[in-house]
Fold Adenylate kinase.
Amino acid sequence: MAPITEEAVSSLKDMVGKLEARVQDLEGRLSNGSNKPKSVAEQMRIILMGPPGAGKGTQAPKLKEAYCACHLATGDMLRSQVAKKTDLGREAKKIMDQGGLVSDDIMVNMIKSELDNNAECKNGFILDGFPRTVAQAERLDDMLNHRNQKLQHAVELQIDDALLVARITGRLVHPASGRSYHKIFNPPNQDMKDDVTGEPLIQRSDDNVDALNKRLVTYHAQTTPVADYYKKTGIWRGIDASQEPGQVWKSLLGVFHKN
């Protein structure tokens, strides 16, 4: 018999976590009837927070599939509006071309536009990359209140900054979908190719140690007050993102199925 190693045990735990999570998914879909539009009370309205490299790009697509909700990654949404030359996209492009930051009003209106017009959002949404400040969180709440909706969960993927260096410098991204992989921890089935489309993966130019450290300083300065904001409303939960992806997924499902 081959010797038992920590790597083998970790791999088995990850596999068990993924299988248990999948069972929970299927049971939830069976009981809820995933083909039926959900009522406002049943919809999943989630804020997914976390520093670069924490695993949002891995977990958000799985949440989208499990809950039949839309994944609104603000960077992708902004690029899409600009590419489609919508009124909001033209306004945002003008500001960006001048080197400015797109206003909170424009970002919130882009989210509202997706909720109004994107059929995938009829069962709820996973918001990724917004809000980054307390002012943005307040604007988002105001917009949702006008729609008679409330956020249900603000989940923060938490991980030590030192661990992010190894993660971020090996990260690979599929630009069109936002799906992310890792050269060591979560490699694609084929080298440098997206598992779903077979299209090439890229490594972002800012996925290096110096750029990461600057982004982390900004993240902590902005997001700590946002986490405190959601803690006051009782919807914030922290998840240990240093775990294997399957265990992180199981922890996420534990938050959403707590009640």
User: Anything to note?
Assistant: Residues 43-159+217-257 form a domain with the Rossmann fold fold (CATH 3.40.50.300).
